[in-house]
Write a structure and sequence with these properties.
By secondary structure, the protein is an alpha/beta fold. The protein contains ten helices and five strands. Pfam families: CRAL_TRIO.
């Protein structure tokens, strides 16, 4: 919990955090995850610092996570074959921010939905988001510098890389794939707000753009910047290497080779 500077008036973010803490006193007693100003700030940013809407959003998320049994122990839910076929590796940027890598071009979405069903595949993504959220919380606890003043920039989301190389247009012909894409986007927006600080999508073909257009409304927002690149490797790789080292990028890509 950040300590305010003595002798100054609290700013709007600090007032909102205090108010939402009071509204969630019962939640904080049983779940210490919410006894964290940086984490509460992420939720508040998603609701434009409105404590009432933030309280509702958090309580809805808690109920949904309990009803859907969302956790981060993938081995308890999915076979090793599934985990190997659909890996979502994590690493860190040059300045230590958590980063998630998704190779959409090599994901057989139709097979995933057929194998796991819509509920199972949606749960898979929800658990990926939950794992990313844990990394975000840990990063903000140890790396945020606020000098005693909590602003909206004091808590930051993670970075996402999405490689769309070789994405097949046939995937877009499956109605369940489309439905799961929308479902997962809704999960991200409603239950994991402000999770991503930035998302970079590259190797975008005309086939992938159809799927991207479905996801785009869920990826944009006041807390997330979105960058897109085509197939010019000089451009997208140069941008990625501004963010991560070559060693880290190679390691992330190795999960999909």
């Amino acid at each position: 919990m950040a300590q305010a500077i003595i002798g100054r008036a609290p700013i709007k973010e600090e007032v909102a955090i205090k108010q939402v803490r009071e509204k969630l006193a019962d939640v904080i007693l049983v779940d210490k995850t919410f006894d964290d100003d940086y984490y509460l700030l992420q939720w508040l940013k998603a609701q434009k610092l409105n404590p009432d809407k933030t309280e509702t959003m958090i309580r809805n998320s808690i109920k949904w996570r309990m009803d859907a049994s969302i956790h981060t122990n993938f081995a308890a839910e999915f076979s090793q074959d599934i985990l190997k076929e659909f890996p979502i590796p994590f690493s860190k940027t040059k300045d230590g921010v958590p980063i998630a890598f998704v190779h959409m071009g090599k994901m057989d979405l139709k097979k995933a939905v057929t194998t796991l069903g819509r509920i199972g595949w949606n749960k898979y993504w929800a658990m990926v988001f939950a794992q990313a959220e844990e990394l975000m919380i840990a990063y903000n606890k140890t790396n945020s510098i606020d000098n005693g003043v909590l602003t909206s920039n004091s808590a930051r989301g993670i970075v996402g890389f999405v490689d769309a190389k070789n994405f097949s247009s046939l995937q877009m012909l499956n109605l369940d794939v489309i439905r799961c894409t929308v479902d997962s986007g809704g999960t991200l927006v409603n239950f994991f707000p402000a999770l991503f600080r930035s998302i970079i999508v590259y190797n975008m073909s005309s086939a992938f753009k159809a799927l991207f257009n479905i996801m785009k409304p869920f990826l944009t927002g006041p807390s997330t910047t979105l960058e897109t690149y085509g197939t010019d490797e000089t451009l997208w790789r140069g941008r990625l290497l501004e963010i991560v080292s070559l060693e880290v990028l190679n390691e992330l890509e190795s999960h999909w080779k």
